[in-house]
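User: Some background: our group keeps a shared notebook of sequences we're curious about, and every so often someone picks one and asks for a predicted structure to add to the entry. Today it's my turn. The entry only has the sequence so far, pasted here. Could you supply the structure so I can complete it?
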Amino acid sequence: MRLSTLTIAVIFAVATPALAEEMPRQGSSQSPFAKGHRLAEEASPYLRQHADNPVEWYPWRKEAFELARKENKPVFLSVGYSTCYWCHVMERESFSNPDVAKPLNEHFISIKVDRERRPAVDATYMIATELISQRGGWPNSVFLTPDLKPFFALTYAPPAEFKQLINQVATTWKNEEQPLRADAERVAGLIDQVTKRKRKAVAITPKVLRRASLAVLSGFDAFNGGIGTAPKFPREQVLAFQYHRATRDNDEIALEALELTLDNIIRGGIHDHVAGGFHRYATDNAWAVPHFEKMLYNQAQLGQVLIHSYLLIGRQSYADAARKAFDFVLRDMTTAEGGFASAFDAETNGKEGLFYLWSKADIEAATGTDANFAIQVFGISEEGNHEGLNTLRLSAPVTELAATAELTVAEFEEKLKRVTTKLGEARANRPVLRRDDKVIADWNAAMIRTLAEASVALDEPRYLEAAERAMNLLVDKLGAGGADMQRAYFEQRTGLAASQLDHALVGLAAIELFDVTNNEKWRDLAKRSAGILIDTFADAEGGDYYLTAAATGFVRTKQYDDADLPAGNAAALELFSELVRRDQDPRWRHAADGLADTLSGLAQRSPMAMAASLVAIDRHQRGAVGPQQFMGKGAVRVTSRRNADGKTAEVVLELAPGWHVNSNKPTEDFLIPTVLKIGEQDPDGLAYPAAKERKLGFHDAPLQLYEGKVLLRFPVSQRSTSPNAAQRLTLSLQACSDRLCLEPETSELLLPAVSQR
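Assistant: Of course. Here's the predicted structure to add to the notebook entry:
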C-alpha cells in the first residue's frame, strides 16, 4: 500500500491551534551509531537530550539539506521541546533503540528541531501534520522529500509501529518516489496558499463581536468553565477576548464565562497550590489532573488575565493566584542573569507528575496535626484521582470550605497557607525537576509585560524591578530593538534570528514599561521594534506580516491563528495600535489600519482561532477600557485610581510640555471643555481645578487652560447600587499646542473595583 496524504480537506481559515500531548527524557547511553554527537554542543536543551541517541541526528541546517539532496534520501523531521512528556517517551522507546535507529540511519537524513527555538519550522510542519493526519501535537514526526516538502506525518507512535512505518516509508520511496513527490507538492501547495489567498476587509462592529463571542461560547463548558472537553487548555487568548467583551461592551455572558473559568482553574489541580503557578493544561474536564509541565507563557498570560479580572471584579482570589504565580516565576524560573527560564519538566524518574502527586499517607506525614484538614480541603482519598495518587485541588469554593471547617474565610486561608507551607517543605525533599534555562525573547517579553502591569495593580515594586532587569537582558544579550535581534539565549549563546512575534511582543513589553515608568527609552525601544516589523517582515502585497525575515524550508510562513501566544499578526497589530495612541509618527496609523483590514475577514470567520486578532482590531478601532489611557497622540496620559480609603477616587491628567487642554468652563463657546463623567452622569462632588490663564497666538483674549499635571478628585458615588464595583468613566477633551489643535476625543477609563473576597 502506497503512503498517501489521504484526503486533504482542511480549510486554513478555520484551523484551530494544535492541541496535543507532549513529552521529556531520561539520559540514554552512548552508542556506536552516534556519529560525532552533532547535537551535543547545540544551544538547545532539547537537542542535547538526543545527543547520545543511536539515531544520527542533524540539527536544522544546510549541511543536512545538502546531504539529503546529494544522496536523494527522504528527510525524517522530529520536532519537539525539552519539557514535552511524549517527546521523552518517544526518545526512550524509539530514538534510543538501535533497532529503530538502524533503518533511520540507513534510509533517511534525520533532523531534530526544537520548536521553541524555531517557531516557523514548527508552524509550517504542524500545518502539514494537521493536513495529513487530521491531528497535531508533539513530538511532530514528519517525512519530507530532499527539498523539505512533507508527504507523510504523525505524532507519537509506539516503537514497533514506528519501526514498521520507517521501513514502509523507505520501501515506498525506493519504489514509488515520484508519487510521493507528487503528494508532497500537493501538501506544499496548500501550505503556500495560506500566504497568497486574497483577504477581504469587513467591518468588525459590536454586532459582529457579539456574534463572535456567541460562537466562541458555543463550546463553553457551563459546569467547569473553559472551552471544549479534555484535554482542556486555559486558552488565554479566549479569556482575554471575554475580558475585552465584558469591559468594552458590558457583555454579561462573556463576564460570567470568564469568572467561571478562572474560579475553576484557581481551585483545580492545574493550579499549583503549593509553589504557585499553573500547569500547561488539564487532562480532564474539571481541571483536576494537569499535564504537569509548567511553561513560562502560561504564567505570563494567565497572570495577565487574572490581574485584569481582579481590577474589573475585585475578586481577591484572582490577585492572590496571580501573585503566587509571579512569585513562583521570580523565585524558581529566573536565571542568574535575570532572564526567565522557559519551562519546568513534568517527569520524575520516568513518571509524569510524580513530583506533584500525593498519597494519603504522604499528606498525613507532611501535615501532621493538620492532616484531617488537608485531606478534606484537597479531597484526598486512598485510591487517589490519578494513577493511585492525588493531585491537589480545592474540593469546593473557599467560602464553603471555611463554613464546613467552622472558620472565617480569613482563618481558613491562614490555615491553608500553613498546610501548603508544610507540603512545600515535604516536596522540597523530592528529586528536583529539570528546568529548561533557555531565555526565549517572546516568552520573556510576555512575562515582562505582565510583571510591569502587575507592579501597579498589586503595588509590588519588585515586579517592576524584575521586569526591567529581564528587558535589559534582552537588550544586552539578544539585541532587542535592533534589526539583528536574536530569538533565544542559552549558556551565553544566541545564533537564531528573531521572529515577527519576538519583535512584536518585545515592543508591547517596552510599551508597558514606558506606561509604568514614563521612561522614554522604553517607548523608543517599542518604536524601533515596530519599525523593524514594517521594514523587514511586511508583505506589501498581502497587507500583513511574515513570521520570519526569510523563507523557512520551502515557504515563508505567516501566523494568523493564536497558539501558545497570540498570533504574530495579532501582536503586530496591537503594537502598531498602541503606538498610535502614544506617538505622532503616521507610520503606525498606516500600518495598523492596513493590518486590521487584512485580518478582519479571517477573524470574523474564525473567532476561536483568532481571538487575539479580534481584540486587537476592536481596540484599534474603538480603544480599550482600562485604568490608564493615552490621548492627544500621546500628549496626554490619563490614569484613574481609587484612593486608599476606597471612598474617593481620582483621575490624573499628565500633559506633555507645550500641550494643554481647555478647562471645564472655557471662555468661548467654540472651545471643547474637559469633562469627566461616570457613565452618563457627572461625578458627585467633583470640583474641577483652577485653570491657568494664557494668551495664545490664535486668539486675542486669554484662555482658561489646564497644563502639566491635572488632578480630578471625587467621592465614589453612593448612588450606585454597587459602589465597590468597577466603574466606567468617560473623559472628553481636546489636546492643543500653541500651533495646532487635535481632533476632540473621548476615552473610556476603568475605575478599578474594591478588593473583596
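Suggested note for the entry: The first strand starts at residue 57 and ends at 59. The chain has 23 helices and 27 strands.
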